[in-house]
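Subject: Protein record for review, amino acid sequence with backbone structure tokens
Category: Structural biology, sequence-to-fold work with a learned token vocabulary.
Format: Residues in single-letter code; tokens as whole numbers, each standing for a residue.
Body of memo: The sequence and its backbone structure tokens, given next.
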Amino acid sequence: MYFLQGNQKKLLTNLNPLFLTFFVLILILFKTTAEACVPSFFTGWDLLLPIVIYLGQRRAIWEGILIVLFNSHLYSLNSSAPIGLFVCYYLGFFFFARLVAYIVYAQTPISVFTLLFLVTILARFVLPLISQSFDQSIFILSWANWNLWNLILNSVLGFFIYLVLGQLDRLTLKVPPRSITLGDNIL
């Protein structure tokens, strides 16, 4: 990609949110249409959570907010949840990931997996609380909420989604804002 001219690199970087949204759309379509042909234990997969954590860790705040709002609304339209439930849920986790990025910037595989696992556990408390504000009843202390397989599945698949998003950023020459600020003190 180093052979591209400056304006071509900028165009490729600006198309990154479109590629990311297209990737999310493919994942949403896969999850909603593949329930008949994949085992039932994949229904507990929260596909947007690692994407939101990635955006919170690696994007500028306004770009991340816009992408999270659009993708979570797209996810809400393909679910049976009330409109706005997933928008509030994922926007809260985006801001949480922004705050955590000042403490732990997940770069190594161990830190990424640990962050995703801890956020998955936290999500088991947050989603029932947010759903109650929308007059939905998801119980915090239920087997469906605390299924160990769902925690592991969300962490493992989230790790691979995190890796795919990292490769997408590399292909589109998208530099995380944290790398820019960390690189200023080199000289």
Summary: The two ends are 26 Å apart (CA to CA). Residues 18-24+46-171 form one domain. The chain has a mean pLDDT of 81. The chain has one domain: 18-24+46-171.
